[in-house]
Design goal:
The protein is α+β, with helices and mostly antiparallel strands. It is 28% helix and 31% strand. The chain is globular and about 85 Å long.
Length: 694
Amino acid sequence: MAAKKKAAGARTAKKAGRTRGAAKAAPAAGSAPIPFTKVLVANRGEIACRVMRTCRRLGIATVAVYSDADADALHVREADEAVRIGPPPSAQSYLQVDAILDACRRTGAQAVHPGYGFLSESAAFAAALDQAGIVFIGPTMSAVAAMGDKIESKKLAQKAGVNMVPGHLAAIADADEAVAIAKRVGYPVMIKASAGGGGKGMRIAHDDAEAREGFRSATSEARSSFGDERVFIEKFIEQPRHIEIQVLGDAHGNVIHLGERECSIQRRHQKVIEEAPSPFLDARLRAAMGAQAVALAKAVDYRSAGTVEFIVDARRNFYFLEMNTRLQVEHPVTEMVTGIDLVEWMIRVAAGEKLPFRQQDIALEGWAVEARVYAEDPFRNFLPSIGRLTRYQPPAGEGIRVDTGVYDGGEIPMYYDPMIAKLVAAAPTRDEACDRLARALDAYVVRGLNHNIPFLQALVRHERFRAGRLTTGFIAEEFRGGFKGADLPFALEQRLAAVAATIQHRIHLREASLPGQLAGHERRAPERYVVSFDGRSGMAHDVGVAPGSATFADGAELAVEGGWRVGDILFAGIVGGEAMNVQVEPTGLGLHLQHAGCSLKASVLVPRVAEFARLMPVKRPPDTSRFLLSPMPGLLKAVAVKPGQEVKAGEELCVVEAMKMENILRAERDGTISMLHAAVGDSLAVDQKILEFA
């Protein structure tokens, strides 16, 4: 049964495009056999699949745990065995220590890898495993406890001689105290959950009002996400870079660092793009930051892989932020430039092996950039999206690695983080790695739900990003007012018009070749098309199509070489001398194209029909301005208004919780509440009515 399950999982993994472009060969590993024959992975999604991949290479059998929502998930299919641990909410499944211990006993798992999130930084979980005689593949309980509490970890870092951010290293009692401390530290300040991580339970405050609201939101979100509502305050460093150092230690007193990762491209404190090395650090600063990271790790007798995070200002001053006693989401970029499989060394260290390499043996080779692909709508303020992946085709090729936990036909449930995959591109230089990542994003097909690939495409091509001028405020500064789609220069619009006309022409050629047509009435493929893009320049492109070329009414001619056949979802070719991957989806009288951050509806008509369409009246969408609609599927956590109440623009109306994040919905204008259409505790669908204005 297990063998059959494993074979099915392997087939599914191949179909889903699991990790490609593995890291270079690592420095010599220990030769002693690993004593674990079976490891339980106490996690889900892409990180569970990634841990299982290394276990499989090492000859270790794996056990998956799953909630009811994940019964058909990829990590369940990838494992040799799988055990149900509860209903969908993580508090009733993936955070249930007793259920995971029972799964270990039932399957005979000798060790547990926690992945990241969930119980990965729980000292109580590590202690429970130890008491049960099961090895925790991670640091010691004391290190987890010391670094897991953000307040206590800063005190320890201070004793270890690590540079500190000014702040108040104690839990804040209430909003009044938050305001008083924020004034003393000096605005702007960061209000942060003591037990936090992943951008949850964090708010920036620039004044007293924001400090009060930030305290309330951060404590509520911290309570919901971590079961610990304590928050503290520290100075917010302006124009900061977020740079972290990967450390690796063993039980024999050896601790080294594996260089840095630049994680400054963030939205709402959640990392979006990471890279190794950083374009900002030089050898001197790398050595100084690495030395402090190693000193902190040694101070807590750190064993396993861990990350020390720093904030770095424009003058290259760096300050300790926190230490994550687990594998980081962005660990693949470090693996790609060092050749060291971090999961393997977590397992080997947990088994008692000694690190076979010293600090001077570690060299960073080439460049790697990672983009996090999420089920969220960048055109609607990145609201989470759930549903079934009706089409899923990740990219492949030299230097490309895809760590994913989904597959074609799988689902993104509403209960967990909406990550689809991590896409990593590696190359000898940063420019080449960014180019490779951009092309791979263009070829990354995700259908059936909204996703952030257009935004990632625009980010990777952004002039400031390519120049390496990064800060944690990059997205807020460069995409003010949200993401509306990438700019579409005329030259690119013309190339896309040539692609659209060529594709439509090939569709018509196929229709003209169908057998059984009435003699004398055979279909002919038109040789001219009128192409226009919804919401763009307003210009219609008159395009003549011939084999290998597209000619425009102004006399411009573009060579078109591309492998595309009817039914393909990707046009991969060269247009006007430029290599292009364009995603293609037929839509009635046209095509939907996605390329370089542009998501375009293309109308592709023969001239006679185009003239007729121009004269047709435009259908207007229904007026929903009187209603507050839920912008996402989620839980109505709070309602701040009642019928008959007058509200002002910007005033809080309600809070919707989705994907473990609280989203405050505010009034867009002054008005009076007429009626409530939903109650606290209701599960909301996207665009469901919450309330109505008079």
